[in-house]
C-alpha cells in the first residue's frame, strides 16, 4: 500500500490525524485502549504496561493477555476456510438476559447482571443456531481471538472421537500402544478411555495456588511460564516423569496432564499434529469464519489442555455443532454416537464423579469424553469449562447454546461458576417461555 507524502507544513496535523485513526482502529480491533488496563503501551512498552511470559497470568494482565497469546509465546495456526464459512443469522426472538437468577449467596438478580459482574469479555446466546444475544465488553469485538483455556480439552476430545470413528484410535487400547515412551511413567497400564474421562491413577495436583503443584511445573515445562533449570523441556518430556498414585479407572480427578497425554496419543495415532487435526476435522467442516491458534511448547508440541484461542462466534459454532448431534447443516462432523455416549454414560461414570469434591459444586453431574454435564431445570446441560471463566453451555431441550469468555482475576471461583451456570439455565428457561413448548 502506498503512503502519500505529506507537505512539511502539515506534518503535525497529519501525524495527529494518523495517530487518532490508528489508535481507534487498534482499540476497535483488539481492545488495547484504556479498557484493558493500558497494557503494552509505548515504543517500547513501558515497564508498568509490559506483559511478558513471566507476568501474563497476573490478574492485571489477563484481559490483554487472553487476546494476544501469539505475542507472548509461540502458536500453531488452525486454519479456517472462507469458502466453507457457515453464516450465523440474527434471531427474531427477544433477549432473555432479563431472566431472574438466584445467586449462590441467595440474592436475586438478572442473568445480564451476572454476566456483567463476572469479568465477561464476550457473551453469545444462540437458539436454533441463530444469535439471540451478542455482547462484547472492555474493548473486545467479534474479531478478537480469546484464549479458551480448558475449553480446548473438549475440542481435543472431539478430535479423539473422530479418530476413533475412523478406526485410527481405539479408546480401549493401552496408552503405550501409541506412546511407548510412557511405559515407565504413571501412565503405564492405563487405557485411552482413562484419559478421556480423567480417571487415570497418575499423581497430578491441579492446585493453582501451590507454586510447586504438578500443574505449575508442567506450565514451566510447556513454556507457559519461565522454565527453571531442573524442569523438563517440553510437555511430553514432563508427562513421562509423572508417577502413579492410584489405580487406573478409579474416581474422577481433574488432571490437565491426562488431556496432554490424549493429544499426544491422537498425534501418534493419526501421524498428524494437533493444529492440523483440529483444522481438518473440526474448524473447516464446522464452518469457522476465522483461523484459530494453539500455543505450543519449546519443542513445538501443542498445548492440548488449554492452548486454543478463537473468536467468540466460532466458539458458538462449535457449541452449535455439539447441540446438533455433531452435525453442521445435516453433515456429520463429530460422530453422533460419541456425543450420545457422553450424554448417556455407564453408571460407573456417574459414580466416579459422585465420589469427588466436584459433587458438592455440581450435584448430579458427571464428566465424559472431555465434557462436563450439569443437571438443570431444562434437562442436562453439556458444558465446556476453562479457568478464569471460559464456558460453552449447551442445552438440547431448549435448543440453546451459550458462550461466555472471561478474565476472572483468579483461576477458579466457585461463586462465579455457579452463578454463571444458573444464569445460562435461567436464559434457557426464559427462551422456552417465549418460544412455547419445545421438543424434548
What would you note in describing this structure?
This protein is an alpha+beta fold and 440 residues long. It has a single domain (121-435), classed as DD-peptidase/beta-lactamase superfamily (Beta-lactamase, 3-Layer(aba) Sandwich), CATH 3.40.710.10. 33% of the residues lie in helices and 15% in strands. It is built from 15 helices and 15 strands. Strands 5-4-15-14-13-12-11 form a 7-stranded antiparallel beta sheet. Strands 1-7-8-6 form a 4-stranded antiparallel beta sheet. Strands 2-3 form a two-stranded antiparallel ribbon. Helix 4 packs parallel to helix 9 (256-270) and helix 4 packs across helix 10. The longest helix has 22 residues, at 414-435. It is globular.
Features:
4-stranded antiparallel sheet, 7-stranded antiparallel sheet, Beta-lactamase, single chain, 15 helices, 440 residues, alpha+beta, 15 strands, globular
